[in-house]
C-alpha cells in the first residue's frame, strides 16, 4: 500500500512538474511575428524605424549642437518632452519598460480623420511573461491596467501621462496611438492590409542596412495627406513610390542616404530610366547669392524620356499650335540646343525676401542656339533683333532678346520646375539664361563677369562635398529662405514666428541628390547647422581672382577715361588690371611676386601711361593692355633686394630707375633700360631692403638709403653729401621723412630698431635720438604734419597704435585684441581729416582709425589685406579696395 501511494504521488508530482513546465514555457515562449513593422498598416505616409533607441536618445538629449536652435518649434518640443518623459516617468523607470525601449521600435504617421493625421507607436514584446510584467508595471505606475486581450484599450491622461492613449496588443506587438481609429485599424487589419504586404515597400526595405540609429521610410503615394496640412499646390505622389533612408545624426548636421523605388508610371522613373548620372557644373555660372538651386542631367536619353512623358500629359493644343507655326514640335526645335544641364535658381534681390528667378541651360554653342531662336522669332513674324542691351561698363554689354514662345516653353518645362521664367533670354559664353525681368538677367551676367558664382561660395562648396560626384537631379536650398521661397503654397498657420525665423538663421542648407542605379534611385539628403558663419560683406562689388590677394590693391589712372582702375597681384604671382565695375581687363602671370610699388610713367611722352615695377629678377613695363613695352622686361644681373624707385628730377619724363641688388650695389637705369653712366655710388656694406628715397631741401637733392649697418645720404651721382654725426641702425621697415622744410629747419626723420626717434639735420648731419617710450622692438613708423605745420609721429606694433606730437607727448593710442600687421597706411580726406588703416593678421578685419585713435563709423570691415581708398568713378563717395576671403577683391563704399 505504501509503495502504491509512493507511486501515485510520484506520478502526480511529475504531472505537476510537466504542467508547471508547460505553463512556464508557454509564458516564456517568444512571439513569432513580433517585429514592430508588421503592425504598420498600408496607409502610413511616414515610417521611422528606430534601430538603436539608446544611441538615438543620447544624441537627441546631449550630443547635437542644434538642439537649442530648434527649441522654439513645437515638433522639437514634443520630441524633447518624450525624451524627458523616458528619463523621469515612473513607468519608464520600471525594468520592463526600460527593456522595452532598448529594442527596435517603429513610429509612423497615418490619416486619422478626413483632415487630420496622427501617429502610431509599435513596440515589440518578447513573450507572454514580459507582457504580464508590462501590464503590472503600467498598473503600478499609472493606476491603469493593460488588457492584452486583442481589443482596443485606453490609458486616460494623468499627471504622468499628458494625453489619452489608445492601445492594442496582438501577436507580440503593443500598438499605441492618441487616435482610437488608428489603433482599431491596426487591430482589424488583415495581412494584405499591412505595409509589409506592399511589394514596393519590401523592395526598398531590403536596401536598408539598419546600421544607423534610425531608418526612415517615405510613402510618396500617401505623403500628400500629411503635407497638405503644411502646404498646397505641390503633389509628391507622382514623383516616386517609396524611399528608404538611413539617418546619421551628427553633432552639427543630419545625413540620410538610401534608395527610392519608382514604379514604371511615376515621374522619376519615366525621366531617369536608363540615364547615367554625371557631374554637374552649372553652379559655376549661378550667382553666389542664389538661395535655391534645382538642376537636372539633360543627357540625350533624358531628353528622349522627357519627350515621351510630355507627349501624354495633355499639352496637345499648345503643341499643335507650335508645330503649325514652325513645322516641327517644340522639343524637336528646342531640346537639341541643350547640351547637358538645366537648372532653376532663385537669387536673392532687394527688398529682402524677394528673388530673381533664373532658368539656365548649357548649350553646345551660342551661335547655333541663337540661330534657332532667331528662326523662332521670324517664324512668328517678329523682329530677330535684340530687345535691349545690358551694359556693365563702357566695354562690356550683352544683347537681351524676348522669348517668342514663352507660353509653350513654360508649359513644357513645368513638369521639371516649380516655375519657368521665360520672358527674356541672353547668353553668357555657352550658357543660355531665361528670366522674367531685365534685372534678373543683369544679376546673372554681372555675377559671371566678376566670377562671383555659387561654386566658389565658401559654405556651398564645403556643403556639396557631402554628396556624390555624379547625379541625375540635385536640389539645394538655404534653410533660412525656405519659408519665403514657398510662401505662395504654405497654409496660413505654418509660417514661422519671429523667434522661429531667427532660430532658422543658424542653419545653412539642405540638399537632395538623386542618382539612377538600375531600377532604384540612390538618394542622399544632407542638412547642416552653421550658426557662426560670416555674413556676406556689404560691398559694391566683389571680383574673384585665381587665389588670395598678395599685397595691397593699387588705384591706377586710366588715361583714356580719366577714371581709376585697380591693379593687384595674387599669391600665384598673377598681376591683374580690374576696371571700376570689377571686371578683370587682363591677367598676366609673372612667375615672381612684385617687390616695388607700381609706378605709372609716360614712356613715350604722349600722355599715355604705362606700369613700371620690379620682381626679384626683372624690371617690367606694361601698357594698359598688359603688353610689354619696348625692350622690357629687363633682366637684372643679380637678384633685387628692394623695390625699385622712380624719380623724374626735372619733370621732363626722363625717368631715373634705382634698384638695389644682392651684390650690395645700387643700380641706376634710364627709362629705356640702359645703365646710367653718371651714377658711381660705392658698394654698400650690407643688404639694402627698402626703396631709395629722393628729397629736395633748400635747393639740394638728397638720395637716401640704408643697410643693416649704416645709412647713406648722397647726391644725384652717388657721392656722399651728408654723414650723420651719430651712427644708428635704421629700423627695417621705417622710411625717412623730410620734416621742418617749411620752417627752415629741414630734418630727415626715421626710427631705430629699438624705436628711438632719429632726426638728422640737413645739410649739417647733426643727429638726435629721442626715446618716446621704452624699448619698442619690431614696429612700423610713419610721419605726417598737420595743417599748422606741427609734426605727428605714428608707431605701430603687433598689438598697438600710438600717435605722438612733436614734443613727444602721446596724443592717441589704441590696443588691439587680435594681432595686426606691423604696418599703417595714411589716408588724407582733407587737409585736417587724416585717418589710419590697419589690418588684422588672422581674424579677417580691417580698421580705419580717426586722429584720436577711435574707430571710424562703420568699421571694422571684413578684409584680409592692406587697402586703398580713393574715387573709382566721379562721385562724392570714396571707394575702399581690399583683399577678401575666398580669393575675392572687395570694393566697399566709404561715406
Which percent band covers the strand fraction? 25-35%
Kindly report how far apart the N and C termini lie. Answer: 121 Å
Q: Which radius of gyration do the C-alpha atoms yield?
A: 39 Å
Q: Kindly report the average pLDDT value.
A: 87
Please give the largest β-sheet. 19 strands, antiparallel
In the predicted model, the low-confidence regions spanning at least 5 consecutive residues are: 16-28
The secondary structure category is alpha+beta
What's the overall geometry?
Answer: elongated
* Separate helix tally: 18
What share of the residues lie within helices?
A: 10-25%
Tell me the number of strands.
Answer: 50
Structure report:
With 895 residues, this protein is α+β, with helices and mostly antiparallel strands. The chain has 18 helices and 50 strands. The chain has a 19-stranded antiparallel β-sheet, sandwiched between helices. Strands 20-50-49-48 form a four-stranded antiparallel β-sheet, with no helix packed on it. It has a four-stranded antiparallel β-sheet with strand order 21-22-23-24, with no helix packed on it. The radius of gyration is 39 Å and the shape is elongated.
Features:
4-stranded antiparallel β-sheet; 895 residues; 19-stranded antiparallel β-sheet; single chain; 18 helices; 50 strands; elongated
